[in-house]
Amino acid sequence: MWDPELAELKRRKEQAERMGGDERVARQHATGRLTIRERLAALTDTWREVGALTGRATADTFTPANVIIGRARIDGRRVVVAGDDFTVRGGAADAAIHEKQILAERMAGELRVPLVRLIDGTGGGGSVKQLEDFGRTYVPYNPGWDQVVANLGRVPVIALALGPVAGLGAARLVTSHVSIMVRELSQVFIAGPAVVEAGMGESVGKEELGGWRTVSAAGTVDLVADSEQEAFGLTRRVLAYLPQSAWRTPPVADSADDPDRTSDELRAIVPRDRRRPYDMRRILELTFDVGSVLELGRRFAPSTITALARLDGHPVAVLASDPLVYGGGLTAHGSDKMARFVDLAETFHLPIVHLVDQPGFVIGTAAEKAGTIRRGARALAAVYQSTVPWASVLVRRVFGVAGAAHRPHDRYGLRVAWPSGDWGSLPIEGGLEVAFKRLLAEAGEEAATLKAEIAERLEAVRSPFRTAEAFLVEDIIDPAETRPALTDWIHDAYAALDPAPHPTTRP
């Protein structure tokens, strides 16, 4: 019999369950945070741990490694979860943590199932105090980072910041498809306040340095939750839009929303005055399945809207512009946001629906200093490199190079326009003065009258019906019929999906 070994196995597993011990667990709770095992219980339906015996043992005690990994189910779907245990050395790395983290990445990638990272700590090389223990230093490297990067093109990766996250932990957070943090509970930074003060002479609190207001506006995280429980709910919701891997198509859900539902409200939502904004998000609510719109990165580059949604139960990636911010113009940050989101859609075969009201790139000295045209051209490249089905609804403006990014023009895509459509190289307002500058200057005192006459002539050819007559836009539809037009398209789009991975691996 193996009774002594089985007793030792039981003892070690019980000690692993206690994590860093009662005192450190109490300290974790005192900060308002759950322990890693409480988080696993709240997030997963079932859990099977891998490597529970990894750690350091003495004759009397066993201290587990401060990362916990395993296979699980979330809403019935198979996943891999890797979580930092802050009660053991603040979640910082030790000799065992590297191998466990690498195995979790490899396990998810090779089993072709989503990966969820629960990050709480640095996840890096630990404190400089360890140098005396090691008797040496080392050249920095990130073990297993090839697996971290490879997974961006293989499986959905959702990363949650559930406490102060710095250094390599922060890098693991953002090297994901969707990142989530908890308001007031978590912070994300390259280095914490003490290191910033020592290295830069800048005294700053952790919320100011890496709190939710700072990092969500910077685009470091995509979603901000009010609690850990809400963060877990957002994780489940995001996963529900995405396939198990890049070799599968997105999961289609049952929908109680009528695919042929029309909305009279859409007929009046765009003002006749082209200078007046309106609520683009209301258009999203009225077009997609009720309650299905999940916006990502709302506080980052807010003139560009990116969201996950459903049409008759089919997941889609949604692009739009917010006329309430810069008139919906495309900024340098908005270009980055758009390119990353199109890459996400391409990786996981999400058809793209673009609700277009694009006046063009935001211009001026700040835009030039931000390298807007270079980053905007990168967004345009992402659009043209995409292969997923694409539908564009031209709601109002479509101008210039930024407007040309409303779809990949080298392949088929559904494109319909509303009667409010307005497009060209430049808007008449502003463009007229440039095009007729010499003529207006020569008109002298009659310049105002001449300008009005030119504007009237140009307005006569501005109608979207003139464009439709030349088949330069395929169809003009009643705005109320937008949802039926898109739900009819989405079934053909899903029938045409090619469930094969594409080499889009940018975080």
Automatic annotation (TrEMBL):
Pfam family of the protein (one) = Carboxyl_trans
Which residue windows does the record flag with biased composition (Basic and acidic residues)?
Answer: 7-21
Q: Which InterPro entries match?
A: AccD/PCCB, AcCoA_carboxyl_beta, ClpP/crotonase-like_dom_sf, COA_CT_C, COA_CT_N
Task: Tell me the ranges covered by the CoA carboxyltransferase N-terminal domain, including all copies.
Answer: 2-255
**Gene3D superfamilies found in the cross-reference section:** 2-enoyl-CoA Hydratase, Chain A, domain 1
Chain segments carrying region Disordered: 1-21
Q: Residue ranges of the CoA carboxyltransferase C-terminal domain?
A: 258-507
Q: What is this protein called?
A: Methylmalonyl-CoA carboxyltransferase
Which source organism? Nonomuraea rosea
